[in-house]
């Protein structure tokens, strides 16, 4: 082993079996013999040998010479090969003369480089066996780079040239990290070198320099390889650590891995939903809509029948109506009645931020549908795909989706068997191109159900739960004006839940009323602590309303009175119209005003003018609205006549004050009527208030019992 210390990495070690041959093949002459050159010129080229004391211990164990130092080997050689070292003046040849010793090593350290000598050809020829024996035991043959010998300037230049040529060549062709690998196998290089020297006819005198250059190149490459290996090892280590961290992170946080699973849904498959089990039977309270859709069902059942007669059915049907009125249900029922596939798509699904995704989904949908005709395509929330708003700069590509929809609708003939049903809450928002003939040209209105429809819907959903025979769906229907089918379904469901929570076996009117109030006014505020004084005021106030309603001919029948706080109210009286009211008479409007006044009148009569409360403000709001409409809209004021006054702000001051005066008179008269009734029925009023204080809530029947002076059974 041998360490080089200057230009190359000190730790570079060179296993040299190859190099030995290259340097010192038997035919090469002693490399130490050369022309002399000035000391300065070669000094900078010197790769310094280590001091003799640091010389590596050579493995000559088998020869019993394991601890032998180089100096001692010298002596050994002397004894083995007598006369070989004779005449060698160790001291200072090169200092006194330009004719130096045989090698630079010898010059510098003052003794012979035994190995170079051993390898010199004449010696080798003479004592080949002995040398072979020694050499075979040397696992590492030290490299004594022979540039230390005396070189001519010319040879040095050539050597440098050849080295730089080789390096440049490598650098050009290969990336730096590859050099180490490419230069690793020197065996072939040795052959090439020998061949090269032969073919190029390099004179023997120069061959040495040539080889030295090669050796330097080789060593540099070795250093490079070492460096590359080190950095590769470092990189591998860093990568490995990063990998470990990554795996740890994934194990710790599985969400990371899930995140990558989200799909764009570019080619989401379209599956039809068979709606065999949904028929028109399931849709209640929308008879007109069902009738209109009946012919579509006939067409889907037998498209040929229509083609033969030349009849032309619309391609698209638009179901228009408020949310929850059963539009989706109707569309499903159409498919179910005709027993054809039903394709459901929601407009918002097409509203994608990626260009063209919406359009491609539309294409997929129609391709599937056409392949399975006859069938129904249902597009819910059509306004979100076909609305005018999408022309805004905020949705620059949404136009593509609507255009695709239009193209698809134009792309098949009316009698091909595909019916597109769209649903929307805002028909006004739809793009005009969508509603022109040939597209969604048939419009079916699905309104909120009337009292009859509500009763039907309630019965339908009540039949799915256990309910008491005393339950009258019509009463609930009357009290749920404006409820949609979905809301009624929810009402029944909430009542069933309430009954379950209260541990009842079946749903009674109480639960149904409870859930109705909850939907209408928000949940009860049972936790609210109301002191007795306020409770009493509320009880008299609500009873006042109830008494007026009960004793006024044209007032709506009472449904319920309660002093249970709910939402923002402390109590309320609910009245039920016998039927949905399409028109109201003057007497009915006045009666409504009187009922509204009943609360404040009761407070005044019972507690005195000084103790009236703010609780009547919404009552006055109601009464004032009715009075105002009677005067300005319904032509019910004698003084102002049958004229409407829409924009009261633009009216003359006289007219304005006349209107105000009329309204005030109506309200005052109403107040007086209410006062009269409550004074007349003071006893009933008191009874009812006390009953409310006891029972909190009274239904129509109970109110009647109290007002008839009978005793309420304890509940
Ligand atoms: N007329 C009805 N008869 C029976 N059930 C109804 C009726 N209307 C609504 N429902 C119930 O309410 C649910 C919701 O109704 P549906 O989804 O059909 O309303 P929609 O008009 O399509 O509402 P949206 O406009 O919000 O899409 C239905 O699944 C059904 O259970
Ligand atoms: Zn009131």
UniProtKB/TrEMBL annotation:
Domain of life: Eukaryota
Domain AAA+ ATPase: from-to ranges: 313-450
GO molecular function: ATP binding; ATP hydrolysis activity; ATP-dependent peptidase activity; metal ion binding; metalloendopeptidase activity
Gene3D superfamilies: 1.10.8.60, P-loop containing nucleotide triphosphate hydrolases (3.40.50.300), Peptidase M41 (1.20.58.760)
UniProt entry tagged with the keyword Calcium: no
Main subcellular location of this protein, as a coarse class: mitochondrion
A cellular component term, taken from the record's GO annotations: mitochondrial inner membrane
Cofactor(s) annotated in UniProt: Zn(2+)
Keywords of the record: ATP-binding, Hydrolase, Membrane, Metal-binding, Metalloprotease, Mitochondrion, Nucleotide-binding, Protease, Transmembrane, Transmembrane helix, Zinc
Family indicated by similarity: In the N-terminal section; belongs to the AAA ATPase family. In the C-terminal section; belongs to the peptidase M41 family.
Assembly description: Homohexamer; may also form heterohexamers. Exists in several complexes of 600-1100 kDa. Interacts with AFG1L.
Protein known as: ATP-dependent zinc metalloprotease YME1L1
Organism, as annotated: Pteropus alecto
Lineage per the UniProt record: Eukaryota, Metazoa, Chordata, Craniata, Vertebrata
């Amino acid at each position: 082993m041998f360490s080089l210390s200057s230009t190359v990495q000190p730790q570079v070690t060179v296993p040299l079996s190859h190099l030995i041959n290259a340097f010192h093949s038997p035919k090469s002459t002693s490399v130490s013999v050369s022309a002399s050159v000035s000391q300065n010129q070669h000094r900078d080229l010197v790769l310094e040998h280590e001091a003799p004391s640091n010389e590596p211990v050579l493995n000559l164990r088998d020869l019993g010479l394991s601890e032998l130092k180089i100096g001692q080997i010298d002596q050994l050689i002397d004894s083995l090969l007598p006369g070989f070292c004779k005449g060698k003046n160790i001291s200072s040849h090169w200092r006194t003369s330009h004719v130096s010793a045989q090698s630079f090593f010898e010059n510098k350290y003052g003794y012979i480089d035994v190995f170079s000598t051993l390898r010199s050809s004449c010696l080798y020829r003479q004592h080949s066996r002995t040398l072979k024996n020694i050499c075979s035991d040397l696992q590492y043959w030290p490299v004594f780079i022979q540039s230390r010998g005396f070189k001519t300037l010319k040879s040095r230049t050539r050597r440098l040239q050849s080295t730089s040529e080789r390096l440049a060549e490598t650098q050009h062709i290969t990336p730096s990290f590859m050099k180490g690998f490419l230069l690793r196998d020197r065996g072939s290089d040795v052959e090439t070198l020998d061949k090269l020297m032969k073919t190029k006819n390099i004179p023997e005198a120069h061959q040495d320099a040539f080889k030295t250059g090669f050796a330097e190149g080789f060593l540099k490459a070795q250093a490079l390889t070492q460096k590359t290996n080190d950095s590769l090892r470092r990189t591998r280590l860093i990568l490995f650590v990063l990998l470990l961290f990554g795996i740890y992170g994934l194990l710790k946080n599985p969400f990371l891995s899930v995140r990558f699973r989200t799909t764009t849904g570019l080619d989401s498959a379209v599956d039809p939903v068979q709606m065999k089990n949904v028929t028109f039977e399931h849709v209640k309270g929308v008879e007109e809509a069902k009738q209109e859709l009946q012919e579509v069902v006939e067409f889907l059942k037998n498209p040929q029948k229509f083609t033969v007669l030349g009849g032309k059915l619309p391609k698209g049907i638009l179901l228009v109506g408020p949310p929850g009125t059963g539009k989706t249900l109707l569309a499903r029922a159409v498919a179910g009645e005709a027993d054809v596939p039903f394709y459901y798509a929601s407009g918002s699904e097409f509203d994608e931020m990626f260009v063209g995704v919406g359009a491609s989904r539309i294409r997929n949908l129609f391709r599937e549908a056409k392949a399975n005709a006859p069938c129904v395509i249902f597009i819910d929330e059509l306004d979100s795909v076909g609305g005018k708003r999408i022309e805004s700069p905020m949705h620059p590509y949404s136009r593509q989706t609507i255009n695709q929809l239009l193209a698809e609708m134009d792309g098949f003939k009316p009698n091909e068997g595909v019916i597109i049903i769209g649903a929307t809450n805002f028909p006004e928002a739809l793009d005009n191109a969508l509603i022109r003939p040939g597209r969604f040209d048939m419009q079916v209105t699905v309104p909120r159900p009337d009292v009859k429809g509500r009763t039907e819907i309630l019965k339908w959903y009540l039949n799915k739960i256990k309910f008491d025979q005393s339950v009258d769906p019509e009463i609930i229907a009357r009290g749920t004006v404006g409820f949609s089918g979905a809301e009624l379904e929810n009402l029944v469901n909430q009542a069933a839940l309430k009954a379950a929570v209260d541990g009842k076996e079946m749903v009674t009117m109480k639960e149904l009323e409870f859930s109705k109030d909850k939907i209408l006014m928000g949940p009860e505020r049972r936790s609210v602590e109301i002191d007795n004084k306020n409770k009493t005021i509320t009880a008299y106030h609500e009873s006042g309303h109830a008494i007026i309603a009960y004793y006024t001919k044209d007032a709506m029948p009472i449904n319920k009175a309660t002093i249970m706080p709910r939402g923002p109210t402390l109590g309320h009286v609910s009245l039920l119209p016998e039927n949905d009211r399409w028109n109201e008479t003057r007497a009915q409007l006045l009666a409504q005003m009187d009922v509204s006044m009943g609360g404040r009148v009761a407070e005044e009569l019972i507690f005195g003018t000084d103790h009236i409360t703010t609780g009547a403000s919404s009552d006055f709001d109601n009464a004032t609205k009715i009075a105002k409409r009677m005067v300005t809209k319904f032509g019910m004021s004698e003084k102002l006549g049958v004229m409407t006054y829409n924009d009261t702000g633009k009216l003359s001051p006289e007219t304005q004050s006349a209107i105000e005066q009329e309204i005030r008179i109506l309200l005052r008269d109403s107040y007086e009527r209410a006062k009269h009734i409550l004074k007349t029925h003071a006893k009933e009023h008191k009874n009812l208030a006390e009953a409310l204080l006891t029972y909190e809530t009274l239904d129509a029947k109970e109110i009647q019992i109290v007002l008839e002076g009978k005793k309420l059974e304890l509940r």
